[in-house]
Amino acid sequence: MTVGNIDVDQRDGTVHFCHQGPGTEGNKEVHVAVGHPVSLAVPPVVYTKHVASKGNNNIGLLFPACKVAGDGVVYVAYSDGGSAIYMAHSLDQGKTWSPRVRVSDMGPGSVELAPWIETGEHAGSVAIVWYGSEATENEGGVPGNTDNSNWRVYYAQTLNATASNPTVLQTVASDVVHAANFSIVGLEVSGGGSNRNLADFFQVAVDPAGHALIAYGADSQSGTWKARMAASG
């Protein structure tokens, strides 16, 4: 089981923990465990698990991410086996969930992995970032997650995330940050070919004006890991 992050509803202390479901079919599900505290001074003792969304492939690539907005809406974002990035939301602290919405729009043969999510001050405003590899930009035009892949940071924003058909705008937020395969099987072992150079380092924040600030890992220039930052204008 691949675990994601924990986020807390700042209004009442309700804790949300997102993770991949158990078993073969569970690997295709995003689960959210919800704990309600007795008071703000006492952490939750009991957690109730809910299925937030279902994919067609392994959704633990790399981790599902969840975020509770200031108005209490809970969001999850995840990669459906690298095929696309999706999000879903809950209006009742994780009990029931909306149908999933695709937020990435990349070409055939592309791979989208490791999303992170943040909310803005405006209700329904959501920012999602991920690492993406377009087949047309890979060495030799080779599709998929291979040693020929060239990865960039992608950014998507919506201002009406809870609508039945939200408007999502996507842009490329970086130059090439990684030119190799992107490990989805854990740390590289001796003799293995899985590349974990980006170190699972990825975050996005939204300032009061609605601009996105993205922190991410990169190794494309020297082969040595570095932290970088990008900001939307």
Features:
233 residues, 2% helix, 1 helix, mainly beta, 5-stranded antiparallel beta sheet
Describe the structure.
There is one protein chain. With 233 residues, the chain is an all-beta fold. It contains one helix and 16 strands. Strands 9, 10, 11, 12 and 13 form a five-stranded antiparallel sheet that branches. A four-stranded antiparallel sheet has the order 1-2-3-4, with no helix packed on it. The radius of gyration is 17 Å and the shape is globular. It has a single domain (58-231), classed as Neuraminidase (6 Propeller).
Describe the structure concisely for a colleague:
With 233 residues, the chain is mostly beta strands. It is built from 1 helix and 16 strands.
Number of domains: 1
How would a crystallographer describe the biggest sheet? 5 strands, antiparallel
Structural class: mainly beta
Number of helices: 1
CATH class label: Mainly Beta
Percent of residues in helices: under 10%
Give the secondary structure arrangement, pairings included.
Layout (H helix, E strand, L loop, with lengths): L2 E6 L6 E6 L2 H4 L2 E7 L11 E8 L10 E4 L5 E6 L5 E6 L10 E2 L8 E9 L6 E8 L16 E9 L9 E5 L5 E2 L22 E5 L5 E7 L7 E6 L2
Antiparallel strand pairs: 1-2, 2-3, 3-4, 5-6, 6-7, 7-8, 9-10, 10-11, 11-12, 11-13, 14-15, 15-16
